[in-house]
Give the backbone structure.
Amino acid sequence: MTATLAIQESVCTFGGSTTLTGVYTPANDENSTKPCALYLTAGLLHHIGPTRLHVEMARELSSQGVAGLRFDLSGAGDSETGSLGGYFVDRSVEEVKQAMSYLEAHHGHKQFVLIGLCSGADDALATALKDERVAGIVLLNGYAYQAGQFAMHRALSFYLPRLFMWEKLRNRLTKLISKETEDVRKNRAALTELDDDFRYIPPQKDTETNLHTLSDAKTDMLFVYTGSEHEDYTYEGQRLQKTHVSERFLKEADHTLILKKDRIKVIGWVSDWFNQSLFQRAKP
Amino acid sequence: VAAHFEGFVSSIDVISIRMGALITAKTSLDDYPINGLYYWDPVESGEGWLAEMDDLHNALLRDTFRFLRRRKKTKGPVSEFASLQINSELKGALKGERFIDLTKSATTTAPVHILTSADQTASNFNVKGADLHAIDERNDWINHRATTTDMVIHKTANRIADLLEQQIIINDSVAQS
């Protein structure tokens, strides 16, 4: 899979009181009726996405008739710093809606698929709940909960192989024997605090309710998890909610898909999902 | 440069970081109206930078051991360095470049500013005619576990902004006289 850049991408600015900046990639087929993809800011990374994931995905999907906009939320990349205050997610939802309005007014798109990794996935889910123009969401390492047969798969695929790996055993023994210094303990505590502060994970029940709402509204959803999420996700099929939901697991990959072959695989899955989905929500 | 040819700007200041500095130093800018060159923490050599990127990529791969098994490097003519892909031809070309040699042989008459850490300025970037600025913050460009707090680089950005402002004042006074 190598997308050749035969299409003309363009830089655009939009938004209300805060100017947001993005790059629009048109579909290679101007008669395509597929929803337009929006690539949402992941953490504090700018619109190219982690390890250029958004660029590679936008160009590959474009070659298959999917237009896309990768843009920066306020305060990230080329966009201005926002002055709306309030919670991050509320501001993000507002800005994603502005991006959709821009695409509707300037490029004629009526339906959208929101694609996001980590906090971008959280923003995609939150926006889909508040805007009917969202026909689908692709959540890369979105919320995960220790549901279904999580514990069994954790034991079989995570702990059991470790019993037969000398390096893992040695590391574990070393940790048990050596006393953790005060500095190490403080650093660990600070990192945990930072992590907790950065990403709010809602209770499982709330997420389930939200997914049912989206499912009832015929919103197509693709969840992709990587092995980095092993503390909460251990096997494909762990998501209990099934209607309108597809699920893929790339066990060997890290959180931001640092290796090209991982990105190729995930982009392939997203591409297949685009081709298979009906996108019935908000169909004109 | 494109903006200059389109007529949007009459002069250009070039601010380049790390490998960008090496590329700028390698580029002939004689035909352009350059006000000043600002090299921010330039890499000393293409070979050194490739080694750093290789270390970074290896560290990223080692990190995957946490999930179970360590990922392996992809073999082939294109090398992957923490999401950058570089073919063997480009790699070969980069290997031979040294920032100090390129800067010394440059023919530009525009003021040159090099901003890097205090321990680097005197020893590695002593270029005749260039202003050396020691900066007391340094982004950890090659730590794969670097967090946002490791990347607070606003002091250097402000320093460059001050230098640009000073250059504008100098240019204005020259134009008036």
